[in-house]
Each structure stands twice: as structure tokens, then as C-alpha cells.
Amino acid sequence: MSGHRLTVEVSPLVRIDDSTTALSMVLSRAADDANGSDFSFGTVMGYINFAGDWRYGVTSTRLIDTAKGRAWTSVSTMSKERLDIKPGQSVTTYVAFGAVDSDSVTVLVPQTGFVTVDVISRDEVSRTGIDLKAMETAVKDDKPVTEQAAASPIEINSRTVDGSLGARTGDKDVTIVMASDVTFAPDSADLAAAAEAQLQTVAGQIAQYPDGGTLTIVGHTDDVQDDAYNQALSEKRANAVKTRLGQLTGLDKWNPSVAGKGESEPRVSGTTDEARAANRRVEITLTPTGGTGSSTKRGGLGNGAGSATPSAQASSGGASLPEAKGPVGKGTEGVTVKRSDGSGRLTISLDHVTRAGGYLLGEVKVVAVDGDTSASDWFHDIDSGGIFSNSRNEDSASVQYTLSSACDGLAVVAGGMQILPADYVPGGKDTHWPLADFNLAEKLQAGTAMTVAVVWPDPGGDTITVDHQSIKKGNGSYAYRLTDIPVKDS
């Protein structure tokens, strides 16, 4: 963990009362830890940001219900639990969550991996060795973040490998973003030839919901022309998309609406060419009558055939992988990456992923070749809108610092799509958090290692390829690819 040898024992999840559950976690540091320096493990197993939300301990632990597509964020604060553990020492700590109605959950243990545990009543604690009194005292003495107690639906974030189309799937709707630079000729509402593949993919997505619902199509422009010109162009483009979709698939059971927003709702702030390109877009929102469905049928950018996974049936068009901009190797063998000046070498590998429900659980291994090397840039989304943005270009206080060094950019590539780590919106927050490790900025010393835990929607198949590539920036910064990674059943 962050270059230190630490083992973590996780207890069953205990229902302390009707509104609170808790885990006991025993953290043991190896006596022969090669990196014997003093270290506060609470600084990497918790999370902090610049908005004053300083939570240490093991507060970045998450619970996952892979069967129903739900995640729980810890309600613990642990503001004083820095977890200073010396080599050879062990510490027992407790982390609390809201009510959990499942019989078992998968625990994402920060920089350690995944373990599935039973959910038990307090009457069953005696058979486990858990110190219930100590657990209750720790939970009572902590100040809970009650707005984060409820489970959050797990959502999906995917995009075409060329960046022309992206989809975000929640439990109620699917939002598809079409890049206008691909869909239309410049300053025109005439559909370009390349738009046909985009619209075929969208039509396939619509077909996954035969009962229909609400279909909203909104055009957006950049700020180059005047307001009136941009407003008119955005409306014409939205109407052009609606017309062609109606020709490609039946919309009889859908209630479509079309609007233009001109330049009034930019996706990315700024006047750079990159920002303006991101703002030229058409957004399509599908709100199916019955919602997007449970974890047994939810839409990514699908091909209309239905899905046995939560998200990720990929479009059949453009299935070939883009040219790799960095090193490529089998997941079991790994690749060695380095910064542009040749320093900061790391070896990154993934020997398998585990299928659980409609998700894939991965534990990526990182070993430092050189000293004083951070792994975060090799996992964060390098196409995000800014240093404090996540992979959805959301930028706010709840993303800052901790999530800016999170694993939100390592994607499964399937059927021409990048399937980014699954994510969710915790209670009381306005941005998505990845179901993956957060604090990856800690610098590793030569020969030391860390584990990066990450959850992806399952695209199916016996093997996967994962990619960390820049779509928008068109360069090889922090790019690499791992192929032929076996998928094992849990």
C-alpha cells in the first residue's frame, strides 16, 4: 500500500442498529517492510479535499452490491485517525456505513483489493471475534456524515475510442453526447457522413427500451459567433438529429422534444480550441418509462440486442482498437512506463479480473522501478477538463485533491468503446466518484509496490483489454495498454 507492506483483515459487516452498520478492520504492517519510514496510512485510506472535508482512517472504503448495482460510501469522519503504524505493529479500526439490506456485500478496501463479507446481526457477533463494545464506542464517538448513509445507484460512463460519442447511464436515464465536429460540417446543420455511425449507435440504444419514454434532444454550440446565430444553429442541429433518428428506429412510443441552447450551457469553461470543441455537441437524453432497469439490463452504448450486464454492450461499429500511443503488453506480464524525460519508471500489470454480478473487479499491481515516483497520472483521466475534474468533466469542491489523483481513466476497451470505471454520486455530493481507488499520488520508492482497486461494467467475454490513452489530446502522455487479461468467475 503506497509502497508499504500492509495486510488488512476485514470482518463481516455488523448491523449495529436499524440505521448503522460497521466493519472491523485489522491493519498489520510487516516487520520487514522494506520501506521502513514512518507513515500515516489514514492519509491514503481516507480522503481529503480543499473544501475542509478532512476524513482520515479508512473512510475511502466502499461497499458494493454487485447484484443490484448499488454502492455505499462510509459515513465515518475519523478526523483524528491518521493510523500511524510502525513496522511489526497492528491496529484495529472501525468504519461505519448506513443501513444495508443485503445478505452480503463486496468491500473495496483502499489500495488492497476486494473481499466479499456477510452482513450479520449484532446477535451473531459472538462467533466472529469482533469486539462489539469497542465497535459501538468507536462509531458513537465519531461524527457521522449522515447525508451519505443511503446506497447510491452505480452508473456507467463510456465513450467511443475516437471521442465522438459518449454515454452516461444512471438508474433513470441515459445521456448520450455527440460531438458536433463529427456529426456536422462546420457552421452547418447538415449531417456529415461520419454522423451515420453515431446515429446508428444511438438508434440501437433507443431500441433497447421497446416501451418507450421521454426523448430529449438538445443542441449546443461554442461561443465564436453571436448569440442569435448560435441559438439558431443549435436548434437546427437538434432537429436534424431527431429527423434522422426517426428514420433509423421507431419513435412511436417515445415522447420526443427538441431544443437549442446555443452557447448558454458550455460543458467546459474556457476559450481554447479544445474547450470549444467539447462545447459543440448534441445531447440526447433517454428516460425510459420503466427506468433503465436493474443490473440485469442497463444501457451503455448498446447494439440494441439487450444486455445481461449492467452497462456495457458496446457498439458493433468501429470495433478495432485505436493505435496505441504507449507501451503494450499482456496483462499478466505488464508494461514498464516512464515519463517523457525517461524518469519515474513503473511496471503496471493486471493478471486477471473477477466477474461479480454485472461487474469486473480488478486489482492492478504497480511496482516502482525508480524512486520518488507517483502512479496517479497513469490512472487518472488525462482527457478530463482540468486538474480537479473527474472523467465526466465535473469540477467542484467534492472532487478536489483526493479524486484528482483517483483511478477514473483506466478503461476497458470493447467494440470500439472505452468503458470507464463504474461510478456513483454519494449522498450530499454533486459529482460522480469512481468505484476505484482515490489517493494514488503518494510517491513510491524503488522496488516498492501498491495495488489499485477498480470496478468496471462487464462487457462480456473471456478476456479484456484495458487502456489508458488520450483521445482528445492526441499524444502519448501517460499512455499504455494491457491485453489478454483473463476474466475469472467469482
Automatic annotation (TrEMBL):
Residues 285-298 have a biased composition (Low complexity). InterPro entries: Bact_OuterMem_StrucFunc, OMP_bac, OmpA-like, OmpA-like_sf. GO terms for cellular component: cell outer membrane. Residues 252-338 are annotated as: Disordered. Residues 306-318 have a biased composition (Polar residues). It is found in: Cell outer membrane. The keyword rRNA processing does not apply. PANTHER family: LIPOPROTEIN YIAD-RELATED, STATOR ELEMENT OF FLAGELLAR MOTOR COMPLEX. This is Flagellar motor protein MotB.
